[in-house]
């Protein structure tokens, strides 16, 4: 393809191991797991031990190829997370508090539950103060927890659970949440990672779920959405984890795909200077729709839902059943007070945001591709950023671009996504065959190859759409459109090779057949 990642020299970090300095060198091509094993080995810690990396000030450092380097005078320390030794006072306090909280969770007595909530309040207040948040945000956290305590008291006891995952399986069962109180570690993003997040070349395969959550949280802060919509930062964390919990472990339509689409949207906002041309409300609609666009995807597309008469198809009258379901799950998560990132905006403003986010998510149904692209083509030559209809049309095309943008990325990032997509396609076609349902040829493992799967899609869907967007934003040609053209050429070359091999095999078979007849 036309783009590739920049080359990096090996990185060096310095560790404090029992008071002695240990120098560790690794390549950017190392995976986070390889780096963890290297750190364990350098620190005389058993392999596969859960560890964290902290700097001289005690801040957590993300263990990945883009982690910031240090100097011999500012050594990092590797901390085993499962150690039984007493660390500093703060670690001891956290360990004791965790043990006490675990005992309380088993007790189911109201007085003990009140104590647990009080402890959580104290921990949250301390965290907020340490991060230097404004006093008004601290008060919001306090008020949220006071309401939670009052609600628990009025109910008279028992652990409060939240129905943050409300989705319909084919059997019509509601799915319950996997945990009560969302929480994930705070990662320090390096400047290198921050800059890479703004580019379509970002490698989404290097990151674990907690790290992707931190990146999404950073995007909302960086775009000014937290400040503009008066979001409680703790609620933002809860909401993001609620989102992650409601993506299934499908080969393709999973939380990593959600992050991939959201990161591409964030990158296009920067690349196309949309912050200068659209409103903050538009930014929020674009990002939130991208995050929520495939929530609770079951791994089987709309065609299967309709042909198999699933509950989703019946519920939504065969009209974009999956996309309607994604919207429903998205706003059920937001309807929970502890996950409502829009709790502090006016009712009318929320109605507008809700309707706009739904409109964008529904636009990701590929059955509407031609309709949406044709509408944008009619406006692009005389586009007016003050015309709300024009802007809405642009937002629909932007989320479509981001949703199917894998081939824009470097080959080493894009090709694994194709493998995941084909795996999901084959699972569906196998099921359709077993149930006697129609099977699309592009999903049939007996008919499709990588080149045949991609050539038509790139030539007739991706390139025309991105070239139309390029008329409005010429700066995307080199970094987004040219990689698509290169990808098309790449798969056409592969198809020629496949065809030549098939023809050679055919001639060889015919030759053997003729030879047998002569004998």
Automatic annotation (TrEMBL):
Pathway membership: Purine metabolism; 3',5'-cyclic GMP degradation; GMP from 3',5'-cyclic GMP: step 1/1
Any one of the GO BP annotations: signal transduction
Pfam families in the record: PDEase_I
Cofactor needs: a divalent metal cation
Positions contributing to Zn(2+) 2 binding: 294
Residues annotated to bind Zn(2+) 1: 257, 293-294, 403
Keywords, comma-separated and alphabetical: cGMP, Hydrolase, Metal-binding
Reported function: Specifically hydrolyzes the second messenger cGMP, which is a key regulator of many important physiological processes. Highly specific: compared to other members of the cyclic nucleotide phosphodiesterase family, has the highest affinity and selectivity for cGMP. Specifically regulates natriuretic-peptide-dependent cGMP signaling in heart, acting as a regulator of cardiac hypertrophy in myocytes and muscle. Does not regulate nitric oxide-dependent cGMP in heart.
Name of the protein described by the UniProt record: Phosphodiesterase
Record organism: Salmo trutta (Brown trout)
Organism ancestry: Eukaryota, Metazoa, Chordata, Craniata, Vertebrata
Gene designation per UniProt: pde9ab
């Amino acid at each position: 393809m036309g783009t590739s990642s920049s080359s990096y020299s090996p990185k060096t970090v310095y560790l404090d191991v029992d008071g002695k300095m240990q120098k560790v060198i690794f390549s950017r091509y190392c995976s986070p797991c390889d780096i963890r094993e290297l750190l364990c080995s350098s620190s005389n810690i058993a392999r596969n031990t859960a560890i964290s990396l902290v700097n001289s000030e005690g801040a957590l450092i993300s263990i990945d190829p883009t982690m910031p380097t240090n100097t011999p005078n500012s050594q990092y320390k590797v901390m085993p997370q499962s150690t039984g030794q007493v660390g500093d006072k703060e670690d001891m306090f956290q360990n004791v508090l965790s043990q006490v909280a675990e005992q309380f969770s088993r007790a189911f007595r109201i007085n003990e539950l009140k104590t647990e909530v009080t402890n959580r309040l104290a921990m949250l207040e301390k965290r907020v103060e340490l991060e230097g948040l404004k006093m008004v945000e601290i008060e919001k956290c306090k008020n949220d927890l006071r309401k939670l305590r009052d609600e628990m008291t009025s109910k008279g006891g028992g652990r409060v659970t939240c129905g943050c995952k409300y989705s319909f399986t084919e059997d019509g069962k509601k799915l319950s949440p996997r945990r009560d109180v969302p929480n994930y570690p705070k990662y320090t993003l390096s400047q290198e990672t921050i800059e890479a997040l703004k580019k379509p070349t970002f490698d989404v395969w290097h990151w674990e779920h907690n790290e992707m959550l931190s990146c999404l949280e950073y995007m909302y802060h960086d775009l000014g959405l937290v400040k503009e919509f008066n979001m409680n930062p703790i609620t933002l964390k809860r909401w993001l984890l609620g989102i992650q919990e409601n993506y299934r472990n499908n080969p393709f339509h999973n939380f990593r795909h959600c992050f991939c689409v959201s990161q591409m949207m964030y990158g296009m906002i920067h690349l196309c200077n949309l912050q200068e041309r659209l409103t903050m409300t538009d930014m929020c609609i674009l990002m939130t729709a991208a995050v929520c666009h495939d929530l609770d995807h079951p791994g089987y597309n709309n065609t299967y839902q309709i042909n198999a008469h699933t509950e989703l198809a019946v519920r939504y009258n065969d009209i974009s059943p999956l996309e309607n379901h994604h919207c429903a799950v998205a706003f059920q998560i937001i309807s929970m007070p502890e996950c409502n990132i829009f709790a502090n905006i006016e009712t009318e403003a929320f109605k507008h945001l809700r309707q706009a986010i739904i409109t964008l998510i529904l636009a990701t149904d590929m059955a509407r591709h031609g309709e949406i692209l044709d509408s944008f083509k009619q406006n692009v030559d005389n586009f007016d950023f003050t015309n709300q209809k024009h802007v809405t049309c642009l937002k629909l095309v932007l989320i479509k671009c981001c949703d199917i943008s894998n081939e824009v990325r470097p080959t080493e990032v894009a090709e694994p996504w194709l493998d995941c997509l084909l795996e999901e396609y084959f699972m569906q076609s196998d099921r359709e065959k077993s149930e006697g349902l129609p099977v699309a040829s592009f999903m049939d493992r007996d008919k499709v190859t990588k080149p045949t799967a991609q050539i038509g899609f790139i030539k007739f869907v991706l390139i025309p759409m991105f070239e139309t967007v390029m008329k409005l934003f010429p700066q995307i040609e080199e970094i987004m459109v040219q990689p698509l053209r290169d990808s098309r050429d790449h798969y056409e070359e592969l198809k020629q090779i496949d065809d030549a091999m098939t023809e050679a095999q055919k001639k060889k078979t015919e030759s053997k057949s003729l030879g047998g007849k002569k004998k």
